[in-house]
Design goal:
alpha/beta, 60s Ribosomal Protein L30, Chain: A, Alpha/beta knot, 2 domains, 6-stranded parallel β-sheet, 4-stranded mixed β-sheet, elongated
């Protein structure tokens, strides 16, 4: 049976982790790391001393001079957005690095909720955790059927689509869900039976699409501000 554990690597992500209520099973760190955080030795039982070389061999970082933690995943619990809240919706975002970047971008703009399709990359993939730079501790992700979720919880949907309305032609957006899709296939058809607005980021290039992490930043900057 899966233990539902994941790795957190590096000093910054670990420090964010300790503020966020995650259950830490084991901590493997260098003497220098523990010298700056002596309270860890009394607070946790699974604490182990390691060299930098050993840490690098245990994790995916090419160099790690601080810490690796083994942490229990949080349950995939349903989230009910607040009426005055903007949320993100991710449909089939499969690249872990992109998901990590989206988490970090969402955190920057104050987004605290992401609803993700079941084919979106796993939040606890090491590449997601590393790319998020600690933002995984502040942004909650709920994996579910998008069609079922938004039938149950209707709200304004702003769907990123190449045939949508120019993002800059709308002055104000009501709180709702900003939907991003797979870079090659876009957003699936699940939203077409729901009240939704298609929006697009205007561009003057023949490039087929923007990186989804870049698109996320542009959309959030325009819609939320």
């Amino acid at each position: 049976m899966s233990e539902l554990l994941f790795l957190v690597q590096g000093e910054k992500s670990f420090d964010e982790l300790t503020k966020a209520g995650f259950e830490i099973q084991y901590i493997v760190g260098t003497s220098e790391f523990f010298e700056l955080r002596p309270f860890l030795l009394n607070k946790y039982t699974g604490v182990y001393l390691s060299t930098e070389k050993e840490l690098s061999s245990l994790g995916s970082f090419s160099s790690n001079n601080a810490v690796i933690a083994v942490v229990k995943q949080k349950k995939n619990a349903e989230i009910i957005p607040k009426p005055d809240e903007f949320i993100l919706v991710l449909d089939d975002i499969r690249d872990p690095g992109n998901l990590g970047t989206i988490l970090r971008t969402a955190d920057w703009f104050g987004i605290r909720t992401i609803i993700a399709s079941e084919t979106t990359a796993d939040l606890y993939n090491p590449k997601v955790i590393n790319a998020s730079m600690g933002s995984f501790t502040r942004v909650t992700v709920y994996y579910t059927s998008l069609s079922d979720y938004f039938t149950k919880h209707p709200m304004p949907l702003y769907v990123s689509d190449l045939e949508g309305q120019n993002l800059h032609s709308t002055d104000q957006f009501a709180p709702g869900a900003i939907v991003l899709g797979n870079e090659s296939k876009g957003v699936g058809d699940w939203w077409k039976a729901l009240p939704a607005h298609k929006i697009r980021i205007p561009g003057g290039s023949s490039t087929e699409s923007l990186n989804v992490g870049v698109s996320c930043g542009i959309l959030l900057d325009r819609i939320i501000h």
